[in-house]
Amino acid sequence: MAPTKRLIPRLGVLLTLFCAAVTAQAQTKIGFVASEAILDKLPDAKNARAKLTDLQSGWMREIQRQEQDIDRARTEMQANRLLWSAQEKRDAESRLADLEMKLNSFRNSKFGPKQEFERQQSDLMGPVMEKIAKAIEDEAKAQKYDYVFDKSSRGMPMLFANPANDITWQVLKRLGVDASDTASTAAAANPETDAKAEADARNKRMRREFRPEPIDPNKVLQPSNGGTSAVPPKGTETESTEPK
Q: Residue 27 above 70 pLDDT?
């Protein structure tokens, strides 16, 4: 009986700790949003996406036109390879190289890293992202949520977090890092500065998650039906599109 008597207080302590843990967990509210549903329904987002699509469509039509010029030049060279002089062949090869260089330059200027598409995307979608992020933050605070995640994202990114639950600086202290003189610690001690930093970080996460995919620059639009067809790889010979 003595061992049993000693076990009862221990069970009581464990039960108390378990109840405290459950209670603490129950006090944490976690919500989620479906970002794709927001973008599909929000007029500002639909308008921004439509403008981006129109821009890309125009660029892809220009790519198609330049590809056709290259195809015609290549077909002409193939048809006249036995008739032209050496100088005429060199001139034709130079013209073809210039056309291909112009096409590559145009593609890179529109779809390359930090080029026209990304700039237009930032200008058009940036204000929309900030508007959505602010609405999420306001609703999370109104409903007293501690965290809000995005279920449309494979990685379930955190779109909102209550700063009161941030233990970054406590972890640094536990790791033996003296962060008392850093700007980050000053920001953490200042609610207004911390809120601004959190808003900036949230907006960056929103921009990454809601970024619309650009049209594949290796495909071109068919103006007649709005479909797509593959652009022939550079160096591929195709039949001339000129009327006979």
A: yes
